[in-house]
Amino acid sequence: MFRRRRGPDDFAEEIKSHCELEADELQSEGLSEEEARRRANVEFGNAQTAQERFYLRSRIVWFDNLLRDIKFAIRQLIRNPSFASVAIVTLALGIAANSTIFSWINSTLLDPIPAIAHTSDMITIMRGERSEHPTPPFSYLDFADLRDSTRTFTGLLAYHDDFMAITGSGKPERIYGALVSSNYFEVLGVRPILGRSLESTAPNERLGTAEAVIGYGLWQNHFGGDPSIIGKIVHINLHPYTIVGVAPEGFQGCKSGLRSDLWIPVGMDSQVWGSDRRIKNRDTPWLNVLGKLKPGVDHRRAENELNILMQRLVERFPDAHKGPNTISSDPLWRSPFGVNVYLYGTLPILFALALVLLLLTCANLANLLLVRSVARRREFAIRLSIGASRWRLVLQLMVENTLIAVAGAGLALLVTKWTAHGLSAFLPLTTLPLTLNGRVDRTVLVAAITISLLAAAVSGVLPALRASRLALAPASALKDEALNTSGGIHKSRLAGALVVGQIALSLLLLVCAGLFVRSLQNAQDFYPGFDPRHVFLASFDLEPTGYSRAQGLEFDKQMLLRLKSLPGVQSVTLGDFSPLSYTIHTDFIQPEGYVPRKNESMEVDRGVAGPEYLRTVRTALLAGRDFTDRDNDSAPPVSIINKALADRYWQGQDPIGKRLQVGRQWTTVVGVAANGKYRRLVYNTAPLVLIPMMQSYHRADQVIVYIRVAGDPMAIASAVERTVHGLNTDLPLFNETTLAANMRLGNSFERIAAAFAGSFGLLALILAAIGVYGVVAYATRQRTHEIGIRMALGAGKRDIFRQVLGRGLHFTGLGLILGLMISFALTRYLRGMLYGVGTADWLTFAIVAILLCVATLIACFVPARRAASIDPMQALRTE
Amino acid sequence: MPSQDNPDDRIALLQGTLDLLILKTLVLGPCHGQGIARSIQRQSEEVFFVDHGSLYLALQRLEEKKWISAKWGVSANNRKARFYSLTAKGRQQLVEKTSEWQRLTRAMGLILDGRPSSEEV
Q1: Which of A86, A112, A115, B113 is most buried by its number of CB atoms within 10 A?
Q2: Which residues lie below 8 Å from residue B45, measured CB to CB, with a gap of 6+?
Q3: What is the span of the domain harbouring residue B71?
Q4: CA-CA distance, A689 to A674, in Å (whole number)?
């Protein structure tokens, strides 16, 4: 099609041939050769016009124009490198902020299960009370019944993930693995790249088959990518399993942001857990359930169906379903299981802030373009007067903006390649297999380019239209600009509006930044209920090294004794959790004499703690006593509760000596501790029960040693290692850290929000100052002549200074008022993310407003000084 | 530029007629632009003056629609010329356009004179 088109040359040739033929004919009719040629040409009319019409008719014209515009735009930008670079860098900052956050959203919320293409028809299912940190909600038997009777799902799968130890194949490793239902891989649509999945274990699901599918990473790192791995044996928690499959690269299980490395049949729980209770009992919830909807079924219908099925189970087995049983479902992007639950509130808000920042950079760019278009007015006027249409002029300017935008997007993507990994930088060292990172893929690329083109359009349209209108009166524009001293009025109105908008948006960003920073500060200053300073932490896991329960207890006892005698050590304890690091578990309780309301959830935070736990972390003991080394197997089971638990269940009674069932074990309450925070600082205080390590050894899947010292906690690390290795040379100590550092995980998301909102706020401040400076400086320069006249007529330097400054302050004032209104209206959406600070925190608003005022004042100061130092004689002569 | 203003409305007036006349001329055999112009002028007894710019645009347009095809060749008096000839599609169009035109003139005649003008012919 393209090749078939005729070129203008061919057409010209045809016209020439026409005239020759006509001349020949006229000649043959009796005219002289010269006359014939003249007549032929005259008769044809204007050949030029015909050619031009031919040219304009061809559809290729717009493309030619575009190429010409692009060439011209590049020349224009090169000719003015300072403008080009400022514009590109400004825009790149705005875009980079967006593409960075989008890259995170893209790889977390939009890609909840890596390596699975379509998750939109999958939902995760919750039973009972909803929270940000639910325990797995289904018992195996309930799950199996639901799976077998549902008609709205193509499949329901169940999984339970936990730490496991693999041995017998090289270096022992502690990994995160999952017990899964036999249909797990089929429902997800994941095909092992080697071997098979676990589906063949279905007939024997309840009893379990000792088979395992390993993750790609584990296969590569632990097994060296052995191609003949299928059929080999791996020991999981000291039991042999046959490796039957290798999962595809990237697949890491069903929890967003957490990596599982190994999958074994759910029935093997009796071996892993050491009892078949979880498989046989209907009252033990421990499985997460995920479903793939049948085509055309929406999640509401599926939810209703499950509720009906669940209700039947509740009626049949009322004793096993005493808690709340309502079933709710979530799309995977906000699944309460995994990391997304913490991100789906934060990331969109950060994205919104980034968009505001982008809008701000657009306003800045628009202002730059406006100033530039006034400077280029003469050029536009000339183009218009020699025949360019206004539309062509606007198009030309839009092409220039698009070039700037594309360059900005390129730069932004380079930055994003680096910042995409920034998310994990906020997470401290942890034993959790977190896989939180953004990446720059095609979606991010497309998003960045779309955003930049939108930005180009938003920032370019008004200035371009204005520029073309400005030049619409070519006569006046071509005249000496001196006549236009007051012609800037129209321009300043738009520029002024832009600056006011900029200040307002900056204020909004700064207010958000201020609120987040204050919230983080509050969170950090807040006393969490324990003293995180001077505490060294290290973790170990005895299970894979083959210790029996008795040996393990003996080891713990010996270790505590030896560690306590180290110089500088004040106290030592153990725990299966550390506060504010997402490691605390929950359990179901039954307090003596308390009658739960119908369907009340009796699930509370539960920690396993060693002797002197409260003393070591310095949590105040309100009544009773701390755990001691006498709280062991031969002593009656005891527990310590916090004040919140006592207040909730034994309001107004003395809890000491009361009986409390924790899980299945009845204990006696021996102590009441002050409230503290165990999950996230932003959460309200929740009830907590502690049970002694020496009486609940099997419930701890890892053991964390807490050592309180006098000085720097990390200084004791090597001494601790020596001591532990003195008892067992092969026992690896992992995650050596301090309590203070470790609890940073608990406010990671607050830190992410504060860091980003903070840097956005700072950028906003700078952009606003630049914007005010630009407009005031430009207006002042435009008015040099006028100022000269004023001074010549007797205005003092002070008057001029005050006038220019006043102009800047005028913008600032309007911007502040507008910004405060916007902020008051919008900050309430941050409520859920703030800690200890209201969304209309007057202090933040005041500080931010003052900060912005000062910044713009400084920005106005320079041009005002320059204006005041104008020499009237010089100014009047510059024309 | 004046040519930009609206080149289309002048063509629109001529479009139907000129296209039809070109097609009609080409029924007799391939011909170049100048020949077509002369032929139309002659056959209309010099009533029509063919604007050459419009003629070539029309030729271009018809070529794009594939009603006619073009090829450089040599004229009777040994000049290089671009010869146009009717395609099958063009032939079919000619029949359609002719009957369309006849219906139009008949209707116009009825309104203007109270009797179909085509009866005159």
Answers
A1: A112
A2: none
A3: 2-87
A4: 12
Minimum Cα–Cα distance from B61: chain A residue: A57
What DSSP character marks residue A5? S
Q: Domain range holding A256?
A: 122-338
Residue A380 in any domain: the answer is: yes
Mutate to test the interface with A, among B3, B10, B48, B74 (most CBs of A within 10 A): B3
Instruction: Say yes or no: A157 and A192 in one domain.
Output: yes
Query: Using one digit for the tens of pLDDT, what is the confidence trace for A481-515?
Result: 444 444 444 456 777 888 888 899 999 999 999 99
Mark whether A667 and A796 lie in a shared domain: no
Q: How does residue A156 score in pLDDT terms, banded at 50, 70 and 90?
A: very high
Chain-chain contact of B57 with A11 (C-beta, under 8 angstroms): no
Would A109 be classed as within a structural domain?
Answer: no
Shortest Cα distance, chain A CAs vs residue B120, angstroms: 33
Please tell me the predicted confidence (pLDDT) of residue A247: 95
Q: Which residues of A touch B66 (CB under 8 A)?
A: none
CA distance B94 to chain A (A): 24
Residues of B with CB under 8 A from a CB of A: 1, 3-4, 7, 32-35, 37-38, 51-53, 56-57, 60-61, 75, 77, 79-82
CA distance, residue B63 to nearest chain A CA (Å): 10
**A352 and A445 assigned to the same domain:** yes
Residues making up chain A, counted from first to last: 879
* pLDDT tens string A278-336: 888 888 888 999 999 999 898 899 999 999 999 999 999 988 888 888 999 999 888 88
Kindly indicate the confidence band of residue B64, based on its pLDDT and cuts at 50, 70 and 90.
confident
Tell whether B111 is covered by a domain: no
Q: Which of A6, A17, A54 sits opposite B57 (nearest CB)?
A: A54
Asked if the Cβ–Cβ distance from A21 to B57 is below 8 Å, we say: no
β-strands A535-540, A703-709 pairing: antiparallel
A102 in a domain, yes or no?
no
Q: d(Cα B50, Cα B55) in Å, to the nearest integer? A: 7
Residues A516 and A376 in one domain: yes
CA gap A572, A141 in Å, rounded: 42
Specify the number of domains making up chain B: 1
Residue with tokens 């499950």, as numbered in its chain: A306
Nearest by CB to residue A21, choosing from B4, B60, B79, is B79
Measured between CA atoms, how close is A5 to chain B, in angstroms? 9
pLDDT, tens only, A60-107: 666 777 888 888 888 888 888 888 888 899 899 899 999 999 998 988
A18 closest CB neighbour out of B52, B57, B60: B52
Q: How many CB atoms lie within 10 A of CB A542?
A: 21
Higher-confidence residue of A553 and B52: namely A553
Q: pTM for this structure?
A: 0.74
Q: Is residue B96 part of a domain?
A: no
Domain-terminating residue out of A310, A338, A366: A338
Domain-embedded: residue B36: yes
Q: Based on the fold, state whether residues A192 and A312 are members of the same structural domain.
A: yes
| Domain-embedded: residue B114 | no
Q: Is residue A75 part of a domain?
A: no
The number of folded domains in chain A is 4
DSSP code, position A183? T
ipTM value greater than 0.90: no
Side-chain-facing half-sphere of A459: CA atoms under 13 Å: 33
pLDDT digits (tens, 9 = 90+) for A771-784: 888 878 877 877 77
Which residue in A21, A51, A52, A389 has the most chain B C-beta atoms within 10 A of its own C-beta, making it the best mutation to test that interface? A21
Give the strand pairing for A665-673 and A638-642.
parallel
Tell me the mean pLDDT in the region A813-835. 86
Cβ distance of B53 and A46 shorter than 8 Å: yes
DSSP lists the bridge partners of residue A214 as A246, A262
